[in-house]
């Protein structure tokens, strides 16, 4: 495309209105540019209040970090810096909507890697200043939780399980800015545990897995393994709450890998003959733990009347009323085995399950733009003056009612479909 002189800023600028077709200048009531840089994806998208994704672009750093065995924040920052302009420009140009015509810019400001959040925020601050647009600061995990409303006309409240590389959260979503925290991981996230076991198994050295994240490679290999290879007691079974723990489970599998290496007489870094069995068994243990804690969350919500029976078209027609909805999101939520186990759980408990497609479960610009649209429509957190906004690497999520869950001492009956 030839870059033309921008009518608005009187400079040569790719966002010039003259670079967009006549139709593109149709005024959308509310249309938001979203920018994501909290971890290892540089994402941008333009989304409107009618749930239309006009344009999107994503650059994943995954393969680069796989080579170094994990995310090095300074490397991630450098890659965000190199790619952000290209990613935002691609999303805006493909949307056909000039930045002069958008309503606001939404950007992830918490939680995440400080060096990475800083790149997205300072880029966004330049844009809002130049184009005189409001800024909508976004909580990354709230954006994961609300993504499902971009895809379905889903009313509040609903129960969400957020499983990603940094978090594990069970929450009742009551509104755009109203979240009840039922439980969360007390140590590491399921994504972190999956990534560590995948690294310990050296899965990225396998040609098929060379461009996959740790979680994806575990899922890939697990198809060829036996989930009953080893049995591990589910974590935290003695605690009647909805919190999670993955570090003990992960260490158990790391010890098992070492034992098997000794048994097979191979060095760390070489491929174990039982790698697929370990992947399958570990994936099953993670899924099982997620399901058992979620079972208590569902029972708690039913007991407290937090999730009314479904009235929308999402209620599956059948003999029973479906009680509420459970949504799974976050990178680990794209795992088909984990989804199936959670589907079995919701079937057992007479609930419906919804999951965004895998590409909207992992980090992306669309979810940030959509959260911006939601906030714009709700009139919540839209800043005309963004001078004082700061990024926050650590951030709380919702109102913590996990003690209330614990005090309700809910016992878990066995489930038909989950062993
Ligand atoms: O949500 P996300 O893209 O980034 C964070 O906000 O953390 O999640 C990334 C995590 C990584 O740990 C990655 O291994 C995991 O999601 N993941 C998966 C799958 N795809 C990505 N875990 C299990 N199965 C998958 N298919
Ligand atoms: Zn995420």
TrEMBL record:
SUPFAM superfamilies found in the cross-reference section: Actin-like ATPase domain
Top EC class, one word: transferase
Keywords annotated in UniProt: Acyltransferase, Metal-binding, Mitochondrion, Transferase, Transit peptide, tRNA processing
Protein's cellular compartments: Mitochondrion
Residue ranges of domain Gcp-like in the record: 53-370
Top-level taxon in the UniProt lineage: Eukaryota
Reactions mediated catalytically: L-threonylcarbamoyladenylate + adenosine(37) in tRNA = N(6)-L-threonylcarbamoyladenosine(37) in tRNA + AMP + H(+)
Cofactor notes: Binds 1 divalent metal cation per subunit.
Annotated GO biological process: tRNA threonylcarbamoyladenosine modification
GO cellular component terms listed in the entry, alphabetical order: mitochondrion
Keyword Transit peptide assigned: yes
Protein name: N(6)-L-threonylcarbamoyladenine synthase
